[in-house]
Automatic annotation (TrEMBL):
Listed cofactors: [4Fe-4S] cluster
Catalytic reaction annotation: 2'-deoxyribonucleotide-(2'-deoxyribose 5'-phosphate)-2'-deoxyribonucleotide-DNA = a 3'-end 2'-deoxyribonucleotide-(2,3-dehydro-2,3-deoxyribose 5'-phosphate)-DNA + a 5'-end 5'-phospho-2'-deoxyribonucleoside-DNA + H(+); Hydrolyzes mismatched double-stranded DNA and polynucleotides, releasing free thymine
This protein's name: Endonuclease III
Similarity annotation: Belongs to the Nth/MutY family.
EC number: 4.2.99.18
Residues at which [4Fe-4S] cluster binds: C194, C201, C204, C210
Short name of one Pfam family: HHH
Organism annotation: Natranaeroarchaeum aerophilus
Gene: nth
Taxon lineage: Archaea, Methanobacteriati, Methanobacteriota, Stenosarchaea group, Halobacteria
Main enzyme class: lyase
């Protein structure tokens, strides 16, 4: 078991510093070429890997161009075009409805506020945060996906369990200028080393400051259960 730095903000800063060295090019892995494509890619990425989304959006973005195309297509046809994505039927409905709202309420532009974005169908705070950060250069919070949730808990940075509670808790201790990068760093670390089922603690740059480190700790703080 590693020994976390105290107070929590010192631990957060050390984690960010080390992961920045480890993953200097860390950034969003979804592919898109405009704000609408970003919004659609993020809606599709819920409960689905970015890799799969990128594969599907390659032909999707070639076929559909602009909110009018998504708003006017038959929902079943759109769903068929997404059929390798988890929950593709629901997501086709979200995309179509969002495109309609973007045309009718926002002059065809993807909105740039948290309130307006979260009024769109299928858009929660997490999706809105990603669109604000990467589409509008507005950083209002920290995107808490499954990697951020798991690893922040393992590292003792939060004891909260739900993403809605984890986000404000992290915003108190992660420096504001790295809120956006924090997410990408933890996602990279979650994919490369601190995986859900079998983290490679022996080869982890955070081992000496991680209270979940498998060598000594019996408990995975992400789940609160024994390794
Ligand atoms: S890989 Fe192990 S030591 Fe590293 S952050 Fe994850 S649980 Fe902690």
């Amino acid at each position: 078991m590693g020994t976390p730095l105290e107070p929590r903000d010192a631990q957060a800063e050390e984690v960010v510093d080390r992961l920045m060295e480890e993953y200097p090019d860390s950034t969003i892995s979804l592919r898109y070429s405009n704000r609408l494509e970003l919004l659609i890619a993020v809606i599709l990425s819920a409960q689905c890997t970015d890799e799969r989304v990128n594969k599907e959006t390659e032909h999707l973005f070639a076929k559909y161009d602009g909110p009018e195309d998504y708003a006017s297509v038959d929902e079943e046809e759109l769903a068929e075009d997404l059929n390798s994505i988890t929950y593709y039927n629901s997501k086709a409905g979200y995309i179509k409805s969002s495109a309609r709202d973007i045309i009718e309420k926002h002059d065809g532009e993807v909105p740039d506020t948290m309130d307006e974005l979260t009024e769109l169908s299928g858009v929660g705070r997490k999706t809105a945060n990603v669109v604000l950060q990467h589409g509008h250069d507005v950083v209002e919070g920290i995107v808490v996906d499954t990697h951020v949730q798991r690893i922040s808990r393992r590292l003792g940075l939060t004891e909260e369990k739900r993403p809605e509670a984890i986000e404000p808790d992290l915003m108190e201790i992660v420096p504001e200028d790295v809120w956006q990068q924090y997410t990408h760093l933890l996602i990279d670390h979650g994919r490369a080393t601190c995986t859900a089922r079998n983290p490679d603690c022996d080869d982890c740059v955070l081992a000496d400051i991680c209270p979940s480190e498998k060598g000594d700790s019996d408990i995975d703080l992400a789940s609160g259960e024994a390794w």
